[in-house]
Amino acid sequence: MNTMMVLATTKTIPDLLVFFVGAAMILVGAVGVIISRNPVHSALCLVLTLFGVAVLFIEQQADFLAVVQVIVYAGAIVVLFLFVIMFLGVDRTEELGEDRLRGQRPFAVALVLLIVASIVALGSEAKWSGGASSVVGPNQGPYQNVADLGKAIFTDYLFAFELTAGLVVIAVVGAVVLARRSADSNSDDADAQLLSAQGQPEGVDQ
Amino acid sequence: MLVMFMCIELMLTAANLSLVTFSRTLNDVGGQADVFFILVVAAAEVVVGLGIVVTIFRRRATANADEISSMKG
């Protein structure tokens, strides 16, 4: 048992306080995402959840990931969700119909409880983690975190890094293609009516 | 349907939290590298998924998942 693993199991009062505040933010936000009737409220509760996760990341000495989580997840992805919600106007026209499958909500609650109970039982049986320690590289604490993570990504996981870079480019190209308005008159009925009402030929901006 | 997307992001965040916790328990920085890649893939997935939702909404003027039940059109 090296010293890092011993440090990971000591509990002091500030550690417990930070953990409980972070965990409370996560749980309140997550329940709020599911329960809210307005999708804008759901997006704001998602931001609360992501800030709670960032607090727990900092407590576990993953500083780079906490900041990247806030900037990318809460700052870009949730903003994208809000753009699409405002653009489509679903916060005004969302109707909550009844469930098509009978009894799916009690079944979902029962399944969640069963899965959580089995994870807790199996985890406590296996003493929570039995893997090999420091396979890629040791976690050297809060001031070395960015250097260690950079070393791991750019040497051991370089191929995965290049693949994800290609994936992001493909996603951007796909989004541009999906959002482009096509020039034929069969699609985009609202645009076709608008253009024909104005007396202009279609595809004039092509 | 957009709340369903947000719940997918919640599930991915839960996996991220588990990975960071186990990376600290096992004193391994590979768990944090995995979280980095999961974050990138989640961002790409949200971009494409929201593009699909916008395209569906343009055609049918509804974003309710129960009403988009046929692949026609």
UniProtKB/TrEMBL annotation, chain A:
The keyword Transmembrane helix applies. Residues 187-206 are annotated as: Disordered. Gene3D superfamilies: NADH-ubiquinone/plastoquinone oxidoreductase chain 6, subunit NuoJ. The keyword Nucleus does not apply. InterPro entries: NADH_UbQ/plastoQ_OxRdtase_su6, Nuo/plastoQ_OxRdtase_6_NuoJ. The chain crosses the membrane at residues 16-35, 42-58, 64-87, 107-124, 157-179. Pfam families: Oxidored_q3 (PF00499). Coiled coil: none annotated. Keywords: Membrane, Transmembrane, Transmembrane helix. One of its GO terms (molecular function) is NADH dehydrogenase (ubiquinone) activity. This is Unannotated protein.
